[in-house]
Amino acid sequence: MTKGSNLSLTALSENVGSAIISLGWSSPTGEGDADVSVLLLDADGKVRSDADFYFYNNPVAADGSVQLLGKEPTGDGSEDRISFDLTAVPADVERIVVAASRYEGARFGELDDLKVTLADAGGESLLRFVIEDAGEVSAIIFGELYRRAEEWKFRAVGQGYESGLAGLATDFGVDIEDDEAETAEAETEAQAGTASKTAVEEDPATVIVPEARPTATLQAVPAPRGPVEAEEEAAPKKRAARPRTAKKKVTPPRAPAKSLAENESWRQARLFPVSALKSDRDRETRATSVLLSVMTQVPRFGRRVTAPFGAPSGRMETFTEVSLPHGDTPRRPDGVIRVERAGKLWTALVETKTNGNPLRSDQVQAYMDIAARRGYEAVITLSNDVALEGSPLVDVKIDRRRKHQVALWHLSWAEVAHQAQMLIRHEGVGNAARTWLLQDLLHYLQHENSGCHGFQNMGAAWVPVRNGIGDETLCQGDPHALEVVESWERLIRQVCLRLGGELGQKVLPAQRTRRGTDPGARRARLADQLCLEGRLQAELRVEGAPGLLTLSADLRTAKLRTSVEIPAPEQGYPLTWAKRLVRQLAEAPADLHVETLVEGEAGGPRGTLERLRPEPADLLPKDGSTQITGFRLSLFKGMGSGRGSAESGFIRSVDDAVQRFYSSVVVHLDAPASGRAAARERASV
């Protein structure tokens, strides 16, 4: 692309519900660097609030629409990658500005090979824009995504700012705090600790945007853009010359090399052995040390783990067995994470639990108090449990009178394993040694002795609820039903993580409720529904799937049902649709149930795939005038009776049902015909 040109993403690919934008550069000295930032703008060309400004201190959007993935070294420099879920971008956001800035007086004219590339959800590189003669500017808008007629387009901008990140942000309505007192305090802390850089006070280009901002707003507005009706330029024809940024990875070979062991009883030596773990304390200590050490040695993995907690992108060091004063007896958190960026330190205390051990409120409260007194930013709890929205795992008291507030975050071991799996299988970490480290970490987490298996128990209420449903004695308002609904929600979140790790795609729970609905009220309604119908239900949104994947557990019949609804094509004849669907499912299980969905009726013709293969016309309604709206595909499976994840457990049966349905049915189906249709479906959820 050339400066000022624009392209429609849907004209380049059908798989643009998600996109990855990479900003790259190289330095003649090998030391040059820059920081990326993203701004979501409304119709007035301004951010709706400061929360629409994403940078190293605010790297992840709560709705998943924006995520700064961090830096990745390349052969001639480095590149910064940003993931966009365009279907999750709020409707009142019309433009997304992608920029980068330098600090400590550095200018973009000192860097070479400034470029921006965009890849679709499948990793296919779609466009490339090279910025030439950047000049003496400390911030540049590389490009922007914008909506036109319900589709997304990309414009190559290349606009520079001499005023740096602060000037760029304030131009778009962000409130920037430039407090000399905070700068001096950061310098004092850097001199007393291990930080090696100092904050720059004179040049506004070096202003580091802090987490807290004042209320005064600068009203500078960026210059208006030119009309977008100009003729769009075609993409470069030499596709092979484009860097395939999403494919630059080092992954283990599909077929492992033949072992040199003399017999199968020999076990490979592990970097992180688990055979000697005997007690819960041993498991907690080793698991914490293993995780924190790999985070520092594999920077991209460390960044993935800490970015959702507001940690900046910078040099990371981790510590274990640290003693911190607290009253008469010092406290020893399981771990400490410190990240240094431009002379400022971000610090988090880590409290770890393994197996089914719960987090203790008094322990977490003590670490919150220590962190507040010492000016630390966060306390991170790590256990097999899964946190739910609006339902904290531990109750702590936060003193709102303190000027410095500490954030409390929770991380599940299943989330840690998911991030490792995503990098190993699908994205890569840059070299074979780091890949091997992540593989050994993943092996450790999945070993039965580690105690880091994720959510494994439906809780004490599971058996009473199952018995109550079978005996028809479970009444609405029973607290046991609410406990089971909460456990079910935790299980579904973990199922999404595991399936997403296998596919390398986003898998998220879909909830048919209005935005802003109180989570507690929603769960109470689902608990009442469980008492009346005896069923637990959930829907999963799998990126690239033709529809929502629905999972239903009927506690009366002890059956699991996994299904997906496929919309009818917009063109063609019903018999052609039926024949094509049966051909697509040639490798699907013979016991797959296929049901025709008809307008205005509860259900249409149905049958097993085994019966329909010779006669696809049996899927058509007898009344030829009835309009077919789609097809529903379903698999049924027996439900585990135990509350745990053993072979006969409920959790294992749910995992197996989802994996089998996706791998044997959904993979054979065509992706949605257009990103626009998929966006409409998601908007209704």
Which features does this protein show?
685 residues; alpha+beta; 6-stranded antiparallel sheet; 23 strands; globular; disordered C terminus
Radius of gyration: 27 Å
pLDDT < 50 runs, ≥5 residues: 178-251, 674-685
Largest sheet features: 7 strands, antiparallel
Secondary-structure content class:
alpha+beta
Shape: globular
Distance between the termini: 36 Å
Strand order of the largest sheet: 17-18-19-20-23-21-22
Mean pLDDT: 81
Number of helices in the DSSP assignment: 15
Helical amount among residues, as a percent range? 25-40%
Please state roughly what percent of the residues sit in beta strands, choosing from under 5%, 5-15%, 15-25%, 25-35%, 35-45% or over 45%: 15-25%
**Tally of extended strands?**
23
Any chance you could write out the topology, listing elements then pairs?
Elements: E1 6-8, H1 9-12, E2 18-26, E3 35-41, E4 53-54, E5 66-73, E6 78-85, E7 95-101, E8 112-120, E9 125-131, E10 139-148, E11 151-161, H2 164-171, H3 180-192, H4 280-297, H5 299-306, E12 315-320, E13 335-341, E14 344-352, H6 361-374, E15 378-383, E16 407-412, H7 413-427, H8 432-446, H9 462-471, H10 479-503, E17 507-510, H11 519-533, E18 535-542, E19 549-554, E20 559-567, H12 574-584, E21 593-598, E22 606-608, H13 609-612, E23 628-638, H14 650-664, H15 675-683
Parallel strand pairs: 14-15, 15-16
Antiparallel strand pairs: 1-11, 2-6, 2-8, 3-4, 3-7, 5-6, 7-10, 8-9, 10-11, 12-13, 13-14, 17-18, 18-19, 19-20, 20-23, 21-22, 21-23
